[in-house]
Write a structure and sequence with these properties.
This protein has eleven helices and two strands. The protein is mainly α. It has one domain: Rhomboid-like fold (Up-down Bundle). Helix 5 packs across helix 6, helix 6 runs antiparallel to helix 10 and helix 8 packs across helix 10. The protein starts with a helix and ends with a helix.
């Protein structure tokens, strides 16, 4: 557990921040993501602070469950490849920058839209999930107890998110999921290309 401290600290911080937001709507309003306020009021902190907030307990649970499952694996991979201090730094950079990158498409789309707002760690978590898929493409992911190989799940997930983004009637920020996932892929290709090659060799 000590080696995976970063994953647990991210979960703890997100849970505490989200619980505060559940009981204080002004707190949530202050820290959620509003591209308009980022651009026009220079409230840059919103680019990351929104990842610590969630709409409800179910939203929080699913994101933290995914972070718990994939975060430990990805953090351990980076520690194994680079050692404790540097590996931890790479994992933290993956998560934080993934969350920041996930705001790029919503920012371009909604920077002048005062009504748009979003919150949640989904973009950052997507970056971690896709890092895990690249590291271990032959592992099985379970969707409603049905095992799906990671190398199949990844493309299906992205295809669904692109489709949902084009037909979005739910208010879910699918573009943030896409941005986070793409960043996770890019980050791993830059920092751990040898691990990616090892994963590909397992497929063939």
């Amino acid at each position: 557990m000590e080696q995976l401290l970063t994953t647990y600290l991210l979960i703890l911080a997100t849970v505490l921040f989200s619980l505060k937001g559940f009981n204080d709507r002004d707190f949530t309003e202050k820290y959620l993501y509003k591209p308009y306020d980022v651009k026009h009021h220079r409230e840059w902190y919103r680019i990351f602070s929104h990842t610590l907030l969630h709409a409800d307990f179910l939203h929080l649970f699913f994101n933290m469950f995914a972070l718990y499952g994939f975060g430990r694996i990805v953090e351990m991979e980076y520690i194994y490849d680079y050692g404790k201090p540097l590996g931890t730094g790479y994992f933290l950079a993956l998560y934080i920058l993934g969350g920041l990158f996930a705001t790029a498409i919503p920012y371009l789309r909604h920077q002048d839209n005062q009504a748009y707002r979003s919150l949640g760690a989904s973009g950052a978590v997507s970056a971690v999930i896709f890092a895990g898929i690249l590291f271990y493409p032959t592992s099985d992911l379970y969707i409603y107890t049905i095992p799906i190989p990671a190398w199949i799940f990844g493309p299906l997930y992205l295809a669904f998110e692109f489709w949902a983004d084009r037909n979005n009637r739910t208010g879910i920020a699918h573009d943030a999921h896409i941005g986070g996932a793409l960043f996770g892929i890019l980050f791993v290709l830059i920092t751990n290309i040898e691990s990616v090659k090892d994963g590909i060799n397992l497929l063939f």
